[in-house]
């Protein structure tokens, strides 16, 4: 996320909330600032992200971004 924040050229663009465990999995909420979400949306970063709505495209973009960095994160929900 620090790399994505640098690509967007902003500071304090995200916040990782306190993790919690459930059924053997660890969950956490990730909150993007309005500025960071706007930059991701308006600069073409999501150009090849599948989805009809912006929230679907953002979910897919972030999922692919994490995957490309070697993370095994699954995004289940985006409130946008």
Could you state the order of secondary-structure elements as H and E?
Answer: HEEEEHH
Main β sheet profile:
2 strands, antiparallel
| Strand adjacency order, main sheet | 1-4
Q: Which structural class fits the helix and strand makeup?
A: alpha+beta
Topology:
Elements: H1 2-8, E1 14-16, E2 20-22, E3 25-27, E4 30-32, H2 34-42, H3 54-68
Antiparallel strand pairs: 1-4, 2-3
Structure description:
With 80 residues, the chain is an alpha+beta fold. The chain has one domain (2-68). The chain has helices spanning 2-8, 34-42, 54-68, and strands at residues 14-16, 20-22, 25-27, 30-32. The protein has a two-stranded antiparallel ribbon. A two-stranded antiparallel ribbon has the order 2-3. The longest helix has 15 residues, at 54-68. The mean pLDDT is 91.
Please describe the structure with a list of short key phrases separated by commas or semicolons.
two-stranded antiparallel ribbon; 80 residues; single chain; 39% helix; alpha+beta; globular
Report a brief summary of the structure.
The chain is built from 3 helices and 4 strands, in the order αββββαα.
């Amino acid at each position: 996320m620090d790399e994505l924040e640098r690509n967007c050229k902003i500071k304090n663009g995200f916040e990782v909330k306190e993790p919690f465990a459930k059924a053997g999995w660890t969950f956490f909420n990730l909150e993007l600032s309005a500025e960071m979400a706007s930059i991701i949306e308006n600069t073409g970063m999501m150009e090849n992200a599948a989805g009809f709505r912006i929230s679907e495209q953002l979910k897919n973009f972030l999922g692919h971004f994490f995957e490309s960095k070697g993370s095994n994160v699954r995004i289940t929900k985006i409130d946008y």
